[in-house]
Amino acid sequence: MEKITILGCGTWGSALSQSLALNGHSVCVWHYKSDVLEKMSETRKYPKLDDFTFHENINFDSNLSKCISKSKIIVVSVPSHAVRELMIQSKNYFTNDCIVVNVSKGLENNSLKRMSEVILDEIDIDEGQVVSLYGPSHAEEVIKGFPTTLVSASNSESSSKKIQNIFSSKLLRIYTNNDIKGVELAGSIKNVIAIAAGICDGIGYGDNTKAALLTRGISEITRLGEAMGANISTFSGLSGIGDLIVTCLSKHSRNRFLGEAVGKGKKLKQILSDMDMVAEGVNTAKSVYDLSSKYDIDMPISIAV
């Protein structure tokens, strides 16, 4: 049994905490809003997940120092735009032998850095102590026990395998990959393509258009990834075409939902104000546009978004 901390208790953080608790691990969940945390602790419910009750192995704590310092495995599950500030706030609480598991998908605006790079900017640990856990995985289906696959990516084989062992279960299959750059690029940029897929839905286009969009979408993601030094084969895997498919097609996809509203003629500002969850593709689109210019890569779908 491991003592594991989850930083951020959105739908995905909640689903992961449940999966880990069912595996027999002791889980401490932190959230930036103490009142929300207290309510979840009392009710053992997460308001955006139906028929869901937190496992008894899950505890809630608003004390960031206490949560992090007592764990060797820390899962970063906040929106990508909040990762750097959270790392700055908590940098002194991480132990030298911890593993930080990033599940946030996005590319930081201005710096254009991946989330593992943002984490390493602020925390004094080796790059092999950071693992990104990505893949086609909607929380709504994970908590229902639907079979799901993820990729544990790290420059360190021992770290990626350790996370594979901790998270794996009969219903959650974890693969390992040493191309953390490719995994993070694929898992982040697919949100931009998913917005485009949603726009097609909102306009009223059909399956022909969606198929073309996915096919050409993974092509331009791969072009950028190759230019940035990632492994081409990564983009045909779970964090690439796998995550792209589920995010572009699923009713659970926030980015596809946002794009659909845009396609129906709604203003982005209004859509964002009405959403109670984060669509990562909005900010990532700006970073992808800058990266396509920096590396001189043709990315017509992403640039259009």
Task: Briefly characterize the structure.
The chain has 305 residues and is of the alpha/beta class. The protein is 51% helix and 12% strand. Helix 5 (115-122) links the parallel strand 5 and strand 6 (130-134).
What does this 3D model show about the protein?
With 305 residues, the protein is an alpha/beta fold. It is 51% helix and 12% strand. The chain has 14 helices and 8 strands. An 8-stranded mixed β-sheet has the order 3-2-1-4-5-6-7-8, with helices on both faces. Helix 4 (80-90) packs parallel to helix 5 and helix 9 packs antiparallel against helix 10 (238-249). The longest helix has 24 residues, at 180-203. The chain is globular and about 50 Å long. The chain starts with a strand and ends with a helix. The mean pLDDT is 96.
Topology:
Blueprint (H helix, E strand, L loop, with lengths): L2 E5 L3 H12 L3 E5 L3 H10 L14 E3 L3 H6 L3 E4 L3 H11 L8 E4 L12 H8 L7 E5 L4 H4 L5 E6 L3 H11 L4 E6 L2 H24 L3 H21 L10 H12 L4 H10 L4 H7 L6 H14 L5 H5 L1
Parallel strand pairs: 1-2, 1-4, 2-3, 4-5, 5-6, 7-8
Antiparallel strand pairs: 6-7
Radius of gyration: 18 Å
Q: What class do helices, strands and sheet pairing give?
A: alpha/beta
N to C succession of SSEs: EHEHEHEHEHEHEHEHHHHHHH
Largest sheet: 8 strands, mixed
Residue stretches low in confidence (pLDDT < 50, at least 5 long) are none
Outline: globular
End-to-end C-alpha gap = 45 Å
Please bin the fraction of helical residues. Answer: 40-55%
If you average the pLDDT, what whole number results? 96
| Total beta-strand segments | 8
Report the portion of residues in β strands.
Answer: 5-15%
